Amino acid sequence: MAEIVIRNLRKDFGDFTAVQSSSFKIEDGEFFMLLGPSGCGKTTTLRMIAGLELPTSGEIYIDGEEVGQKPARQRDIAFVFQMFALYPHMNVRRNISYPLVSQGMSKRQVSEKVAEVSRILGIEDILDRSVSGLSGGDRQRVALGRAIVREPKAFMMDEPLGALDAEFREHMAEELRALHDRMGATTVYVTHDQLEAMQMGDKIVVMNHGVIEQFGTPQDIYDKPATMFVADFIGSPSMNFLRFHGEVHSGSSSVKLHHAELAVPTLREPFEGDLVYGIRPEHVSLVDAGESRGEVVAAEYLGTTQIVTVKTAGGDLKARIASNQSVRSGENVGLAFNGSAATLFDNQTGRALKSDLNEGVLAHV
Amino acid sequence: MSSYSITEPSAFQKWLAGTLVVAYAIITLLPLVWILTTGFKSPVDAIAYPPKVFFEPSLEGYVNLFTTRTRVSPEQLEALPEPETWYEEIVRNRDMVIAGPSRYGERFLNSVIIGFGSTFLSVFLGTLAAYAFSRFKVPLKDDLLFFILSTRMMPPIAVAIPIFLMFRTLGLSDTHLGMILLYTAVNISLAVWLLKGFMDEIPREYEEAALIDGYTRFQAFYKVVLPQAATGIASTAIFCLIFSWNEYAFAVLLTSGTAQTAPPFIPTIIGVGGQDWPAVAAGATLFLVPVMVFTILLRKHLLRGITFGAVRK
Fold this sequence. Notes:
- The complex is a heterodimer.
- In chain A, strand 16 (292-301) and strand 17 (305-312) form a beta hairpin.
- In chain A, 44% of the residues are buried.
- Chain A has helices spanning 42-50, 92-102, 107-121, 136-148, 166-183, 194-200, 218-223, 228-233, 359-363; strands spanning 4-13, 16-26, 31-35, 57-62, 65-66, 77-80, 154-158, 186-191, 203-208, 211-216, 240-248, 254-257, 260-263, 271-279, 284-286, 292-301, 305-312, 315-322, 332-337, 343-346.
- Chain A has nine helices and 20 strands.
- The radius of gyration of chain A is 24 Å and the shape is elongated.
- Chain B is mainly alpha-helical.
- Chain B has helices spanning 11-38, 43-46, 60-66, 74-79, 86-92, 104-135, 141-150, 160-170, 176-201, 204-212, 217-228, 230-246, 249-254, 262-265, 277-297, 299-306; strands at residues 67-71, 96-101.
- In chain B, helix 9 (176-201) runs antiparallel to helix 12 (230-246).
């Protein structure tokens, strides 16, 4: 198992820059998520780590060794593809044993390893079947089997759950995480699904337009977004943005927004210009004595909670409140904000302003 | 109320389709049946009018195909010892004796060498080129592909004279190598284009998986891509073989002795001792066999190959 260090990694396809100057570190044994919308460069980054694309510039260290320009076969990593890419002309057993055969392992050792892996994955009964007749879940397991049988330094997974039904996905996600915990293997996992990333990852890198927006634990990324893109991309519904023009000073702990005085975590830098007050829906509550007022537009019932959309002077807002609180459409309600969880952004660049809340997180972006 | 489905054909539609297929099969197979039966007729039955559907089968055509014969007078025939083999007896019945073997065997072997040789070479080179065009960034890729296709934009025989002169200068006239190279040159554009289509349909992930699993690019191509492309390779091989096996015009022009193939030879059989249609038909029948066997062996691939890409899997 290995730690993976990415330094100033860049990839150009002709005039198009897929990844520009990425740097991050994946600790040994970590389940690491590369998250972002399609076309953000996450898959290209993964393929560069795997050796399927060669970087235009920058370094990749696997277990301390620089492998940036080496072919895939010399990197000792395994890759699980979105469409699984099982060799269609071979049965399950041969698919799983294929990486071992390339190493010249003896037949007895190969069959022992295959037996062991198929026991872990619970696919002993399908070993002699052709891969073309298998269900999505079994294909997934065979693909995982082919990856783990070699005991590589690290696993690369490119949206491995993307091809499965919604119902089965959740089950497979748990299975995958359990497998990872059992083996303790460094895993790099690409997904565009923020829930999947939050649910499974130890750490997440959020990418957009080939740039790393933020790198950290799921909690940090959710609670302390470094940019407006991250705040918007992570969370469902996403963070509320209230735009205003104003001035803040280092040390101030409130902002004046459309005649309301809203609390914010103590700021660590001054700023003047177009600002955005960002607050997650669960930090907005409907209280008559709230700082601001608005009219209820809609309420979505979600079981234990409900999402209420409120029209205010500063724009539409969503609040996540307990589902037993009764709310009627058209009602005029007071809004209270949990200021200690709010983030201020520079509207121009989308960058979060440093405050007591996020200072530690922003330091290593 | 009658139920009907827009996807499932009705009984009448099925009957109609079946009838059309059978009618088409009869129309296309009839000439073949004619050739096949003529090969087993006596020369008299072969030209009988109205044509004889039922006749006494005879191997005379096949015997004449493989032998050269000389006419002898009845006295000389009397003086000869009793015929030792059944084919000598057939020949003697026509007041003739066998003078030696004909050249049909040689010509047939030439066809096999040149036809299969050029097919192998076209498919081999075509596969490599198609893989490169499909997977790698080749400079001027589109122009090169167009250039390759453009060699088929006129009938190959249109360049017969330059090729004739070229072959004469290079000493390739009437050689196996020359004919193999010529047919390969004609077939390769078809092979590259067909195979590129097949290669494009094979997901890159298979090779990438093999690259990750510890194989080199060539091993990945050989062990993973080639088995996937088997269908395409088989149908391409059939198309190439059919062309080079049946080719007549260049064979007439460029071969006469050592490298002559069967197509220019078969018509010459007719000149030996009258209009020997059974021998010609026998030659044509045997000439059909290799392509037929080859096609039947690969027919599973062929059907899938021809309809490839028509339906999304």
